[in-house]
């Protein structure tokens, strides 16, 4: 009898614990900020010291991943994850100058996104993006005349390319891959050696320098970088070109920032544009549009460099000790105002 009683108590306790865990998960997923802060307790993994010693690239020179023991500083395939303090910005600057680079920065500002975000994006880019390097901005818009005039430092120029305005915001976002592919095959590809492609609904807040450059560069998504892999919002419909099966995927990358050499980006944009076309023919649209296809691409073709969430941080998450110096910050989203 006593044994039965004890068993029942344990059973009740077990279910209470399960309910409690599910409750926490629910609160967490629905954005209760206090719960979100518990996220830092989820282990990110550590970079093995044998691999750490080998981490270097042609811009940052030898990296110092041991300077950030509290975060993951390399990937399983040996690419560095760039955190503040792991690189020497002066070395990166010198290397980039020696290579006499021109760096492209593309941004789309279609519809009301132009008035709302573009001026601040460009003005802050002048203060923080690849300062001291040769830069060419490419602004894609359906209204070239409305592009704000921003004073540019010597060695930097801004080109405006006209694009058609898609009716749905999802199509504006997805059409970027095709447009970028064409641009990279044209003047942009001839002018620039490396290119960053960014969303316009953000602004620079700290130095975003040549330490971010590499053959192919992916950005860790600030809302998802500590989540377990099975929770990541990949496309799961196996019929979609962007689908990742359970157990697949390394990280969840943010489509608001990606970059690389012209050749690598030609490959990336072709892959994503083609996947989107295939999906459309089947009447499908991936869960997070171009971002889903980008995540599929980086699963198949691992990025040579990964940027920590410090490079593109969402202030809505609040401050975190491990986010030392945010370089880009998400601007407030006002979808009701911006999207038709
Ligand atoms: N965009 C635009 N006009 C639109 C929709 C999107 O210019 O009507 C561009 C803009 O550069 C924007 C990007 O596409 O930053 C991605 O869209 P959004 O930022 O709304 O997507 P989210 O970051 O919310 O996923
Ligand atoms: Mn955005």
UniProtKB/TrEMBL annotation:
<feature type="binding site">
    <location>
        <begin position="199"/>
        <end position="201"/>
    </location>
    <ligand>
        <name>UDP-N-acetyl-alpha-D-galactosamine</name>
    </ligand>
</feature>
<dbReference type="GO" id="GO:0006688">
    <property type="term" value="P:glycosphingolipid biosynthetic process"/>
</dbReference>
<dbReference type="GO" id="GO:0016020">
    <property type="term" value="C:membrane"/>
</dbReference>
<feature type="binding site">
    <location>
        <position position="201"/>
    </location>
    <ligand>
        <name>Mn(2+)</name>
    </ligand>
</feature>
<keyword id="KW-0472">Membrane</keyword>
<keyword id="KW-0328">Glycosyltransferase</keyword>
<keyword id="KW-1133">Transmembrane helix</keyword>
<dbReference type="InterPro" id="IPR005076">
    <property type="entry name" value="Glyco_trans_6"/>
</dbReference>
<feature type="binding site">
    <location>
        <position position="199"/>
    </location>
    <ligand>
        <name>Mn(2+)</name>
    </ligand>
</feature>
<keyword id="KW-0808">Transferase</keyword>
<dbReference type="GO" id="GO:0005794">
    <property type="term" value="C:Golgi apparatus"/>
</dbReference>
<comment type="similarity">
    <text>Belongs to the glycosyltransferase 6 family.</text>
</comment>
<feature type="binding site">
    <location>
        <position position="291"/>
    </location>
    <ligand>
        <name>an alpha-L-fucosyl-(1-&gt;2)-beta-D-galactosyl derivative</name>
    </ligand>
</feature>
<feature type="transmembrane region" description="Helical">
    <location>
        <begin position="12"/>
        <end position="31"/>
    </location>
</feature>
<protein>
    <submittedName>
        <fullName>Alpha-1,3-galactosyltransferase 2</fullName>
    </submittedName>
</protein>
<keyword id="KW-0812">Transmembrane</keyword>
<dbReference type="GO" id="GO:0046872">
    <property type="term" value="F:metal ion binding"/>
</dbReference>
<keyword id="KW-0735">Signal-anchor</keyword>
<dbReference type="GO" id="GO:0005975">
    <property type="term" value="P:carbohydrate metabolic process"/>
</dbReference>
<feature type="binding site">
    <location>
        <position position="221"/>
    </location>
    <ligand>
        <name>an alpha-L-fucosyl-(1-&gt;2)-beta-D-galactosyl derivative</name>
    </ligand>
</feature>
<dbReference type="GO" id="GO:0031982">
    <property type="term" value="C:vesicle"/>
</dbReference>
<dbReference type="Pfam" id="PF03414">
    <property type="entry name" value="Glyco_transf_6"/>
</dbReference>
<dbReference type="InterPro" id="IPR029044">
    <property type="entry name" value="Nucleotide-diphossugar_trans"/>
</dbReference>
<keyword id="KW-0464">Manganese</keyword>
<dbReference type="GO" id="GO:0001962">
    <property type="term" value="F:alpha-1,3-galactosyltransferase activity"/>
</dbReference>
<keyword id="KW-0479">Metal-binding</keyword>
<feature type="binding site">
    <location>
        <begin position="108"/>
        <end position="110"/>
    </location>
    <ligand>
        <name>UDP-N-acetyl-alpha-D-galactosamine</name>
    </ligand>
</feature>
<feature type="binding site">
    <location>
        <position position="113"/>
    </location>
    <ligand>
        <name>UDP-N-acetyl-alpha-D-galactosamine</name>
    </ligand>
</feature>
<feature type="active site" description="Nucleophile">
    <location>
        <position position="291"/>
    </location>
</feature>
């Amino acid at each position: 009898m006593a044994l039965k009683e004890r068993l029942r108590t344990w059973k009740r306790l077990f279910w209470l614990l399960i309910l409690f865990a599910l409750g926490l998960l629910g609160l967490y997923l629905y954005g209760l900020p206090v719960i979100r802060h518990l996220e830092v307790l989820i282990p990110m993994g550590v970079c093995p010291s044998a691999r750490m010693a080998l981490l270097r690239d042609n811009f940052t020179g030898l990296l110092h991943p041991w300077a950030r023991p509290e975060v993951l500083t390399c990937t399983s395939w040996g690419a560095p994850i760039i955190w503040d303090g792991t690189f020497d910005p002066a070395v990166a600057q010198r290397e980039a100058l020696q290579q006499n680079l021109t760096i492209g920065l593309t941004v789309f500002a279609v519809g009301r996104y132009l008035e709302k975000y573009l001026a601040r994006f460009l003005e802050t880019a002048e203060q923080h993006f690849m300062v001291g390097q040769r830069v060419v901005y490419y602004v894609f818009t359906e209204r070239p005349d409305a592009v704000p005039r921003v004073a540019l430092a010597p060695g930097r120029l801004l080109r405006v390319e006209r694009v058609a305005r898609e009716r749905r915001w999802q199509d504006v976002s997805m059409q970027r891959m095709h447009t970028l592919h064409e641009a990279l095959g044209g003047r942009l590809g001839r002018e620039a050696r490396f290119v960053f492609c960014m969303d316009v609904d953000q602004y620079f807040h700290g130095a975003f320098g040549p330490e971010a450059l590499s053959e192919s560069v992916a950005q860790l998504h600030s809302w998802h970088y500590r989540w377990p892999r099975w929770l990541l919002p990949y496309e799961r419909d196996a019929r979609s070109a962007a689908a990742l099966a359970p157990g697949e995927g390394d990280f969840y990358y943010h489509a608001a920032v990606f970059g690389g050499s012209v050749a690598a980006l030609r490959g990336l944009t072709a892959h994503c544009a083609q996947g989107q076309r295939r999906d459309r023919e089947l009447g499908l649209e991936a869960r997070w549009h171009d971002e889903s296809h980008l995540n599929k691409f980086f699963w198949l073709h691992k990025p040579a460099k990964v940027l920590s969430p410090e490079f593109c941080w969402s202030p809505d998450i609040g401050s975190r000790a491990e986010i030392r110096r945010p370089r880009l910050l998400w601007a407030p989203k006002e979808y009701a105002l911006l999207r038709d």
